[in-house]
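Sequence, please.
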């Protein structure tokens, strides 16, 4: 049994100061009925909590840490930049360097704007799609999560699904009215919306691999179908690649599935663990963004030196080491097989995977919701007691990094076998 006294004490103190004691809901461990673990440090594939328990980390800060914790080159790059100042609120060469790395990596991106969070990236991409098309409605999918901007907190996944509040309070009905809902992997549900109000729809926003209701891959032809429907109605297709970008391939889902959207949002890996995200796409679309065009979007710390340094170093390392993708895919496959051998329903795309506590194949929001979240909570407890840190929610993903060793995977499989 792990010692937890210090985490318990720190959580008590935090709850008196911060709503729910956390700065992001899913960290509160409410879905698994446990005191959250307070982390002291992370090195490589491991995190250490304040009670000195070590864990093999498969949360990886919800995806950014494809190179593991405290990658020496990234840390060095950040340290070096800090000495010259943290932020200027003025253009720097580094922002163009990162923009070029992104444009060279992601086929659909001809111009890109750096922002500070995935929420900001998706919110901005939606505004751009509305400004470009002159239309108000957007289509999102039940169980997809695109950050916490008002219009997207409708039947959303991730922490909302974990807390069973897929529609947030505080969002005026007027906002939600322009958000139309379809079912993931159901092209007919999308076609039905476009048949009724296709001329009013600015864009479809989609997680090309859903990872916020657990991992749900696109069925054969789903993404291609979205591309066809949006072209037919002159609507835009937005790939929210905050999780999949630089994760399932260096060029993300666009490269992996060979479907080219009009706009792409990026986050997590692109910032190398620092608060940095981005949105970009076709030149003619991106040129509606201020100060060039009439769609306003701004940010004090957008593209700041420290975050861009972490992002540049991370992308350069990934570009230098294409073999990392083979390694993390192979390790993802080994973990998935171990879960499948235990009879779990498993979905995986590369190094992104989820085991579901249901006997159904999980292909959408409804089938994901058949999962037994109590059984998941027991599983989570057993994993953490054995020093394996997975997301504290059935509706999140496991992430494998390039620094998870064969021994780490072997050890994890040994624990899965005891479940
Ligand atoms: P952020 O604003 O949290 O940087 O990104 C929002 C976002 C946008 N799009 C997708 C596909 C995302 O998965 C996210 C955020 N992911 C969650 C985890 N599933 C962040 C964890 C949290 O909310 O604490």
């Amino acid at each position: 049994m792990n010692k937890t006294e210090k985490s318990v004490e720190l959580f008590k103190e935090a709850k008196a100061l911060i709503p729910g004691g956390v700065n992001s809901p899913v960290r509160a461990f409410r879905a698994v009925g446990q005191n959250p673990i307070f982390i002291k440090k992370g090195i490589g594939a491991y995190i250490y909590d304040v009670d000195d328990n070590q864990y093999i980390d498969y949360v990886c800060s919800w995806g950014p840490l494809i190179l593991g914790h405290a990658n020496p080159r990234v840390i060095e790059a950040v340290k070096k930049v800090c000495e010259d100042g943290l932020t200027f609120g003025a253009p720097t060469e580094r922002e163009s360097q990162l923009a070029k790395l992104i444009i060279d990596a992601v086929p659909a991106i001809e111009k890109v704007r750096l922002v500070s969070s995935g929420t900001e990236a998706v919110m901005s991409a939606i505004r751009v799609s509305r400004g470009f098309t002159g239309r108000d409605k957007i289509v999102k999918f039940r169980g997809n999560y695109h950050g916490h901007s008002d219009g997207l907190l409708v039947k959303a996944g991730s922490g909302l699904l974990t807390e069973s509040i897929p529609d947030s309070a505080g969002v005026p009905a007027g906002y939600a009215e322009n958000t139309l809902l379809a079912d993931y992997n159901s092209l007919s549900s999308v076609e039905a919306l476009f048949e009724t109000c296709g001329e009013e729809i600015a864009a479809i926003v989609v997680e090309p691999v859903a990872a916020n209701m657990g991992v749900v891959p696109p069925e054969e032809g789903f993404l291609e179908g979205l591309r066809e429907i949006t072209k037919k109605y002159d609507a835009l297709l937005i790939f929210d690649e905050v999780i999949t970008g630089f994760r399932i391939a260096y060029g993300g889902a666009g490269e992996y599935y060979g479907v080219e959207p009009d706009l792409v949002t990026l986050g997590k890996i692109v910032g190398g663990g620092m608060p940095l995200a981005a949105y970009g796409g076709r030149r003619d679309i991106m040129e509606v963004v201020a100060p060039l065009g009439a769609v306003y979007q701004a940010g004090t710390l957008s593209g700041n030196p420290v975050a861009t340094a972490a992002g540049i170093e991370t992308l350069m390392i990934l570009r230098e080491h294409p073999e990392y993708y083979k390694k993390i895919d192979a390790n993802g496959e080994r973990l998935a097989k171990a879960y499948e051998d235990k009879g779990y329903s498993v979905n995986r795309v590369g190094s992104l995977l989820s085991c579901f506590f249901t006997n159904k194949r999980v292909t959408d929001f409804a089938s994901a919701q058949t999962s037994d979240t109590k059984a998941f909570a027991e599983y989570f407890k057993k994993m953490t007691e054995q020093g394996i840190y997975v997301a504290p929610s059935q509706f999140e993903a496991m992430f494998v990094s390039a620094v998870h060793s064969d021994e780490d995977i072997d050890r994890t499989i040994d624990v899965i076998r005891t479940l």
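The chain has two domains: 72-319, 336-388.
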